[in-house]
Amino acid sequence: DTGVSQDPRHKITKRGQNVTFRCDPISEHNRLYWYRQTLGQGPEFLTYFQNEAQLEKSRLLSDRFSAERPKGSFSTLEIQRTEQGDSAMYLCASGHSMDTEAFFGQGTRLTVV
Amino acid sequence: GDSVTQMEGPVTLSEEAFLTINCTYTATGYPSLFWYVQYPGEGLQLLLKATKADDKGSNKGFEATYRKETTSFHLEKGSVQVSDSAVYFCALSDRDQAGTALIFGKGTTLSVSS
Q1: Which of the four, B9, B41, B45, B103, has the lowest number of CB atoms within 10 Å?
Q2: CB-CB neighbors (< 8 A) of B106 in chain A
Q3: pLDDT on residue B40
């Protein structure tokens, strides 16, 4: 296992289009987190899963955003009707419920034009 | 709510200089504290952590001590290298709230010149 993997690394989309990102966590980790990072800011929490259950969602996660982790392994983050303000780096992290630290993927950079 | 405050950057140093990046936190519970580093074009990597008061986390010559009395977790390195140029993030995780995600500071950019 080489770590947390995210796909794609870069995505350019037109405003109003839908986009979907994928995250493959470290295999033995039961927790999976999504964060958003804009330029000059630290990562901001969006949502997290323990196994397949989505346990917490940030107020940042508007109704245009949806995340799934159907079998408790990989996760997808979908943004519908993208807006220019959605342009950011979307980071996925995984960890174990017995520990507080998280391991991050390299992120998906979204640009909405 | 919980929060992390880091010193503003950028921090510009010459090689072999001493580095301090200040970090203070506010938490309702008893958090674990972390420093993450983000090299250009890469994802965040855990640099070090401390889980209880007076613990010292260390890695790659970097150190930080969990100071509960001053609610601080300052990052230090005795002699920086050009390869240390990156963005450094202080973060906390509140262990009293199961499943709480990491809360990050805004990051401090370090630039080291030879």
Answers
A1: B41
A2: 40-42
A3: 86
Q: Check pLDDT > 70 for residue A87.
A: yes
Give the model's pLDDT for residue B43.
Answer: 87
Residues of chain B with pLDDT under 70: 95-100
What are the tokens at B21?
């990046």
Asked if residue A44 lies in contact with residue A91, where contact means CB atoms within 8 angstroms, the answer is no
Which pLDDT score is estimated for A113?
97
Q: How many Cβ pairs closer than 8 A exist between chain A and B? A: 59
Count of C-beta atoms within a 10 Å radius of residue B90: 30
CA distance A25 to A1: 9
Residues near B68 by beta carbon (within 8 Å), at least 6 away in sequence: B53, B54
What are the tens digits of pLDDT across the range A24-47?
Answer: 999 989 999 999 999 888 999 999
Q: What is the CA radius of gyration of chain B?
A: 14
Interface of A with B (CB under 8 A): 4, 31, 33, 35, 40-45, 48, 50, 55-56, 91, 93, 97, 100-107
Residues in A touching B32 (Cβ below 8 Å): 100-101
